[in-house]
Amino acid sequence: MGTLLNKIFGFIFFFSKKIKHFLWKKIYDRLANTYEVFDWAFMNYGFDYDDRNQEPYLSQEDENYRYCIQLYHHTVEKLTIKDKTVLEVGSGRGGGTSYIARYLSPKKIIGIDYSKNAIKLCNRIHNENNLEFIEGDASNIPFDNDSYDIVINVESSHCYPSIPQFLSEVKRVLKPGGLFAWTDICPEKAIGKYEEAFASFGMKNIESYEITKNVLNALDKDTINETKNDIIKSGAPFYLKGIMKDFSGVKDTNIYNTLKDGRTKYYFKIFQNI
């Protein structure tokens, strides 16, 4: 029975964008309520640099999250963050937003997420003076036009019901000349739709390449994946365990296997608002 329900929910999850959006909100709310401590601060799959000399310095307390942090570092390392106003759309449990606030010295960084419980958790466990978390939806970003120097979006857009609407909102809140850094997984069959949306939202693409190999290497090396498995086993409702395990990206899950065989790719892009 459990296996059948997993298959049914999995089918709905993959083929209905609106239901997928709703289910992810419920999953994040559940995780925030069940795991309030800093034992799963990052939701992303991580990034492994080809050259270890490129790896950022981390304090000892952050070393456990090195690969997840490195995905954030890679996303923003070509941007000038210092003294800028930065927005992260889809901040999850806030680990990446906190990393940027602590290490890269923005004037202010705001993380928004559509999970009210995740926002409450983030504001409780992350206490940097230049950091704040606010409830908000990627399709209706709760800020005025021309508000931010930089917008980032890390492994979150695959959950959104409309990529064109999200991109339209990013352009609206970015200042003229502002930068947008995006990185995420994308099924091979959907790449054309993503590229069409990126080509038509009125910003200049200044950097674009695939990082699937780097993400897979991180998944292979990162010991934090064992913690993810334990959390899913003990905290997820039975009908979502299969979906949540798949999207954790640990070895032998659907996500891991499709990244491995090329059915899913992982991309990185930077755009400038012109």
Quaternary state, please? single chain
Number of separate strands: 7
Q: What is the tally of helical segments?
A: 11
The level 1 CATH classification is: Alpha Beta
CATH topology, what is it called?
Rossmann fold
End-to-end separation? 54 Å
Give me the side-by-side strand order of the main sheet. Answer: 3-2-1-4-5-7-6
How many domains, as an integer?
Answer: 1
Q: Classify the helix fraction into a percent range.
A: 40-55%
Mean pLDDT: 86
Rg from alpha-carbon coordinates: 18 Å
What CATH architecture would you give? 3-Layer(aba) Sandwich
Task: Provide a descriptive summary of the structure in words.
The protein is of the alpha/beta class and 274 residues long. The protein has a single domain (2-273), classed as Rossmann fold (3-Layer(aba) Sandwich). It contains 11 helices and 7 strands. The protein has helices at 2-15, 17-34, 66-76, 95-103, 116-125, 163-173, 191-200, 212-221, 224-235, 241-248, 254-261, and strands spanning 85-89, 108-113, 131-135, 148-154, 174-187, 203-210, 264-273. A 7-stranded mixed beta sheet has the order 3-2-1-4-5-7-6, sandwiched between helices. α5 (116-125) links the parallel β2 and β3. It starts with a helix and ends with a strand. Mean pLDDT is 86; it is low at 1-15.
